[in-house]
Amino acid sequence: MTRWLNEDEQQAWRAYLGATRLVFDQLDRELQRDAGMPHAYYEILVRLSEAPDRALRMSALADRSQSSRSRLSHAVSRLEENDWVRRESCPDDKRGQIARLTDAGFEALAAAAPGHVEGVRSHVFDPLTPEQVRQLHTINQTLLDALAQPADTTAVPG
Amino acid sequence: MTRWLNEDEQQAWRAYLGATRLVFDQLDRELQRDAGMPHAYYEILVRLSEAPDRALRMSALADRSQSSRSRLSHAVSRLEENDWVRRESCPDDKRGQIARLTDAGFEALAAAAPGHVEGVRSHVFDPLTPEQVRQLHTINQTLLDALAQPADTTAVPG
DNA sequence: AGCATTATGTTGAGTCCTCAACATTGTCTG
DNA sequence: CAGACAATGTTGAGGACTCAACATAATGCT
After folding, report:
1. Domain around B49
2. Quick one: B82 exposed, middle or buried, by C-beta within 10 A (0-12, 13-18, 19+)?
3. What is the mean pLDDT of residues B51-56?
4. Is B10 in CB contact (< 8 Å) with chain A?
């Protein structure tokens, strides 16, 4: 019953696993070495920097940085220790917490960004042709759409 | 001086980040839930199962499962607790250790595989066209080649 | 209003990973 | 052969993540 992978699929899958792991490990190591933060934290700082007033509700930040609430909560606690982010209480929802990027946080991000972007370029964009970049974009958008939809399309009653 | 990402590249990169994270988180969660092991351990068992006598030197296993020696050492210790893998000393190299897949380990892998493959299919291969799978394969092979080569091609003395 | 349900965010325990340091053994060179 | 060097694998500390449980506050229903 199992739809096993055939030879081509097997190879494609292993290339996917290998390349993805290599790219992320490499970027993560560079970021940790050069900026003292893991990639997940960089992402959080980026999302905050893009938000109005560089502040977001925890839940909104969790959505945008593709993080669980728990992970984000731990991460923001850590970021607070560096004084890169500060928590504020939310005026209109007493449950809410607002994470705000500090000036120091913004500077840390600004310092980290050029090196990181250079890494992304050299490890991902430079090796690929413009056409491949377009293909990869379409492919990833497709995967995102497929996975973001929790809908079960395999069994529609009727 | 920084070669920042333009709008298209930015979008492509975020789709890549998002899709990759979603795919791996999903597969990892499924594997943990259904088979009680993280994906990295699944990989290790797979590589061992493919090896002659289902055994490999630690260093060879580390290479094939794209793992650091340290990570592998910790992981094999953990796998030994489940009696899925056993360590043996290496006859021709006293530094060496051989990791051998036990019968129980093979059975655990056999039990985990169908569900995992189904996950890979449904989250990755099913949403994509055959053409896209080919494209993705080529792209990942390119990235692998680029990153596996530590060669610095930016500055050749001359 | 009263009560159950849902949403928000945090916490702690446990797991996995990284990094640097280390002990041991093999290899190479003078 | 001796001594430097390289390779193998392990260890421990510390960081990041997951999961389940929780406290608190908002919402919805009757």
Report:
1. 19-147
2. middle
3. 98
4. no
